[in-house]
Amino acid sequence: QSALTQPASVSGSPGQSLTISCTGTSSDVGAYNYVSWYQQHPGKAPKLMIYEVSNRPSGVSNRFSGSKSGNTASLTISGLQAEDEADYYCSSYTSNSTSKFGGGTKLTVL
Amino acid sequence: QVTLRESGPALVKPTQTLTLTCTFSGFSLSTTGMCVSWIRQPPGKALEWLVRIDWDDDKYYSTSLKTRLTISKDTSKNQVVLTMTNMDPVDTATYYCARGRSRFDYWGQGTLVTVSS
Q1: Nearest CA in chain B to A99
Q2: From chain B, which residues contact A within 8 Å (Cβ)?
Q3: Any idea which of A1-5, A84-88, B7-11, B40-44 has the lowest mean pLDDT?
Q4: Backbone angles phi, psi at A82, to 5 degrees
């Protein structure tokens, strides 16, 4: 049960936009619109940022958006801010009724 | 207000069995559609989904760990219990419980379990 594939790191300057990809297979990301994204600051529990590919929970900034094409999902952060510096994880429901996470992406704000 | 809290030993010896309890409030595991998952994170590494129990007592396990994991619930106490057998140093991690199936909208603060003799 291999993890979803994410870039290990991304970086951007304040105000810029950037996108984090999450690649799976036709048995997970490509199977359902059940991809979610989590933000994790050091020493903290993950926080849900996007669910069902593109939906934002109440209270999450509209600078965060999600999309999916085939077996690859993406998280886009616009108007990058210092507080966005964190680790980001994607997750997908699978055809086995289980879940899996990506390897995580460290976002650095320059 | 939904909250979850993990509890259990901070240190276990190799080959021992780990038992962790997730105590939650703000929802009921007897409500249709409710689920609780366990997720772990080794120090400096990625999240790993372990197991889920659903409101109807269905259980789903990570393929790689299913022989070592058992999950159960006590609806009256609002608790979910995870047991993991034959612990090894590579199982050292922060263990989280979280509400959800296709998305994890509420998480506990996590409990660090170290496996060492």
Answers
A1: B49
A2: 37, 39, 45-49, 52, 60-64, 96, 101-105, 107-110
A3: A1-5
A4: -55, -35
